[in-house]
């Protein structure tokens, strides 16, 4: 099993370790609910070093990125970040990712752990015509996410740069614990927070994580694991690749039209199919639901729309902050309006669910 | 850890005999492994079960797991308090967090369960894996 450079810290903090995408990572330390609530009310500290970092540099870096992703990277300036889709020819997802503009001719693309090698090969293949160097530097980087209302105060204690001017989806280079880092105001929880990318050996990376956890105590911030990361992102309706988005559902079906810039100057992979689908209209759509009946509808449970089976729940959990069972699923367009009811097979029972407004949880700013 | 005067199954249910009935719950080890319990699907009273049949489901934030009938018999009551306060399974697994009661039709089945000492050894075995 692969270990992040922070691995040792998880054992010191008595994390409950599981295998996730081939990595030895903590599913929880004190408990999923406790960690989830900490992020909503104070703060949580996550090791997300398993994420991938793929660098683009060269004369055609922007053109290569533009060709590969659904969003319009020409709108970026150094220090700005975009969420985007890396798409197949049919407009479905190879992956979802963040695009960081480091400087002119240099971009960092942050991708999902399970897809690093697939994405890297895809990018090289589909950007072969451009004068760009594409490097997978995932092994070199550690990443720690500090999320929640106290995140800024906590991270500020570790860096020499002023965090206040860094806006949402912006980043700045700075030193954290004396190490060079990229400090990014992003996250996967629906809260304010930072993601810090840095290069360090295991001792220094573990030290930083442990020091964040220790300094975090005075703010009631807690180390948090994969369990809370999943419930937090789902409450905020942030898609999980492999569950809610994949290579058989398009960007439009995933209701992520806002990351799709069909009119951007440069053509991109998947554009033609999506232009066509936009004209013809979609037939299914990813929606959020709540269970009306008791129970929890989890990933893979079958859906029934007017008695007919229609796919499966893509993500589902008991939402620890909202205290109710929620989930995501693709429904036929005509049955996808807020308030529409359908059924989910939960073991031998049929439970009623209804479509609700999303995100389920929205931070009050 | 485990309590005295209870019997234990390999699936981490505890069993307390009360005359011709048994009370069934899950152990402290089980509730800890499950994490925060948010819903318990209780068995219908009157349901007949064979030893080893799934009797109830416990839903935690992380996962769902079955509670198996530790003996053969009929469900005589279920802990309806868990409807509003499923967290009792976490807070008092050996007490208020009990799950159901069932009739005991073959008392000999109890001898197949572990006593406290054996169960604690069994837990040590799991921890050592």
In short:
The complex is a heterodimer of chains A (365) and B (129). Chain A is α+β, with helices and mostly antiparallel strands and 365 residues long.
Account of the 3D structure:
- The complex is a heterodimer of chains A (365) and B (129).
- By secondary structure, chain A is an alpha+beta fold.
- Chain A folds into three domains: 7-48 and 140-235, Probable tRNA modification gtpase trme, domain 1 (Gyrase A, domain 2, 2-Layer Sandwich), CATH 3.30.1360.120; 52-136, Alpha-Beta Plaits, CATH 3.30.70; 283-365, Aminomethyltransferase beta-barrel domains (Elongation Factor Tu (Ef-tu), domain 3).
- Chain A has eight helices and 19 strands.
- Chain A has helices spanning 7-12, 32-41, 61-68, 116-126, 151-156, 202-216, 226-235, 271-280; strands at 16-20, 23-28, 43-47, 52-57, 81-87, 93-103, 106-111, 133-136, 142-147, 171-176, 179-184, 193-198, 221-223, 284-291, 302-305, 308-319, 324-332, 341-346, 349-356.
- In chain A, strands 10-11-12-9-3-13 form a six-stranded mixed sheet, sandwiched between helices. A six-stranded antiparallel beta barrel of chain A has the order 14-17-16-15-18-19.
- In chain A, helix 2 packs across helix 7.
- The radius of gyration of chain A is 20 Å and the shape is globular.
- The mean pLDDT of chain A is 97.
- Chain B has 129 residues and is of the alpha+beta class.
- Chain B has one domain: OB fold (Dihydrolipoamide Acetyltransferase, E2P), CATH 2.40.50.100.
- Chain B has a six-stranded antiparallel sheet with strand order 1-2-3-9-8-5. Chain B has a three-stranded antiparallel sheet with strand order 4-6-7.
- In chain B, a hairpin with a 3-residue loop joins strand 6 (54-60) and strand 7.
- Chain B is globular, with a radius of gyration of 14 Å.
- The model of chain B has no long low-confidence stretch (mean pLDDT 93).
- The interface between A and B is medium-sized, with 17 and 10 residues.
């Amino acid at each position: 099993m692969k270990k992040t450079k922070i691995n040792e810290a998880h054992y010191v903090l008595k994390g409950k370790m599981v295998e996730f995408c081939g990595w030895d990572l903590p599913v929880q330390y004190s408990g999923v609910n406790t960690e989830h609530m900490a992020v909503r009310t104070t703060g949580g500290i996550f090791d997300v070093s398993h994420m991938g970092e793929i660098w683009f540099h060269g004369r055609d870096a922007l053109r290569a990125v533009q060709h590969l992703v659904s969003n319009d990277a020409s709108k970026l300036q150094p220090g700005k970040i975009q969420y985007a889709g890396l798409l197949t020819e049919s407009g479905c997802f190879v992956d979802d990712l963040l695009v960081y503009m480091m400087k002119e001719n240099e971009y960092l693309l942050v991708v999902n752990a399970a897809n690093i090698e697939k994405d890297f090969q895809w990018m090289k293949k589909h950007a072969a015509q451009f004068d760009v160097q594409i490097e997978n530097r995932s092994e070199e980087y550690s990443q720690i996410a500090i999320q929640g209302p106290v995140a800024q105060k906590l991270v500020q204690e570790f860096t020499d740069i002023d965090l206040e001017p860094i806006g949402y989806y912006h980043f700045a280079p700075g030193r954290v614990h004396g190490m060079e880092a990229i400090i990014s105001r992003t996250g996967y929880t629906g809260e304010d927070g930072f993601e810090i990318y840095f290069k360090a050996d295991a001792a220094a990376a573990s030290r930083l994580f442990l020091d964040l956890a220790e300094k975090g105590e005075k703010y009631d911030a807690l180390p948090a694991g994969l369990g809370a990361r999943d419930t937090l992102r789902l409450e905020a309706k942030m898609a999980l690749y492999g569950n809610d988005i994949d290579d058989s559902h398009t960007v439009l079906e995933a209701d992520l039209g806002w990351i799709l810039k069909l009119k951007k100057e440069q053509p991109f992979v998947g554009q033609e199919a999506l232009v066509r689908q936009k004209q013809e209209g979609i037939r299914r759509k990813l929606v959020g639901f709540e269970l009306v009946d008791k129970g929890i509808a989890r990933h893979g449970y079958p859906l029934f729309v007017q008695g007919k089976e229609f796919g499966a729940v893509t993500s589902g959990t008991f939402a620890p902050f909202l205290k109710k069972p929620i989930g995501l699923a693709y429904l036929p367009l005509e049955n996808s309006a807020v308030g529409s009811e359908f059924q989910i097979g939960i073991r031998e029972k049929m439970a009623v669910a209804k479509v609700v407004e999303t995100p389920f949880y929205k931070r009050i700013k | 850890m485990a309590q005295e005067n209870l019997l234990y199954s390999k699936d981490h249910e505890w069993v307390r005999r009360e005359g011709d009935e048994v009370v069934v719950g899950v152990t402290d080890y089980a509730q800890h492994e499950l994490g925060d319990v948010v819903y318990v699907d209780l068995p219908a009273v009157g349901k007949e079960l064979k030893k080893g049949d799934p009797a109830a489901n416990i839903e935690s934030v992380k996962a769902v797991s079955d509670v198996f009938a530790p003996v053969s018999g009929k469900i005589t009551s279920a802990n309806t308090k868990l409807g509003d306060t499923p967290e009792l399974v976490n807070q008092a697994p050996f007490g208020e967090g009990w799950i159901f009661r069932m009739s005991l039709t073959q008392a000999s089945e109890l001898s197949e369960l572990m006593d406290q000492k054996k169960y604690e050894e069994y837990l040590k075995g799991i921890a050592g894996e």
